[in-house]
Design brief:
single chain, mainly alpha
Length: 184
């Protein structure tokens, strides 16, 4: 949707929204992004990620979102990681492509952990759950789930969801004393 100068959502028909995006908003955002103006340097990534007004280009989206990380704005990068996670979750019968998407998610996730934002804990838990529970018909891999949870816990200590999933992992591994410590 498009907002007016007062910040309120304008009630426009979809064709007018698209026209404004194509003719005004995207060109202005692109110009400001090319000049290095924040937040446009990473906002432009959303256009390339969604394919609105431009051809979808994940490499350009990632480059823009990387600039957001440089400006302490991980939202775009988190959105891109979630995009790859979602893509992996929809490819149940295409193991190689699914693995590629989950690997990309993990790579982006590791970079996000360095940004220190607590919002990445949810992605870490979801990604670990793929391997912990075999979500989306992925192969269970308790070691990989543990590595993801360990990295998440180290970056975001004390997160209840991470601790809960650590406990579940230790139950699967039949290490009940550790499971109890995490559950407690």
């Amino acid at each position: 949707y498009i907002t007016g100068e007062d910040g309120k959502r304008l009630d426009l028909p979809p064709e007018k929204v698209r026209r404004r995006l194509e003719q005004e908003i995207f060109p202005e955002t692109q110009r400001k992004a090319e000049s290095g103006t924040a937040p446009h340097v990473w906002t432009i990534g959303f256009f390339y990620l969604t394919g609105v007004c431009v051809e979808k280009d994940l490499a350009k989206a990632e480059a823009a979102f990387r600039k957001g990380l440089e400006h302490d704005s991980p939202v775009g990068f988190l959105t891109l990681a979630n995009y790859y996670y979602h893509m992996g979750s929809t490819l149940r019968n295409e193991r190689e492509e699914q693995t590629s998407h989950f690997n990309k998610t993990e790579t982006l996730f590791d970079e996000l952990l360095e940004s220190g934002g607590p919002q990445v804990a949810g992605l870490g838990v979801s990604l670990a759950s793929v391997y912990l529970f075999g979500w989306y018909d992925a192969e269970k891999d308790f070691d990989r789930a543990g590595e993801i949870l360990d990295r998440t816990e180290k970056a975001i200590p004390g997160n209840p969801s991470v601790l809960l999933h650590q406990s579940k992992r230790y139950i699967f591994l039949k290490d009940y004393p550790k499971a109890y410590d995490y559950a407690e």
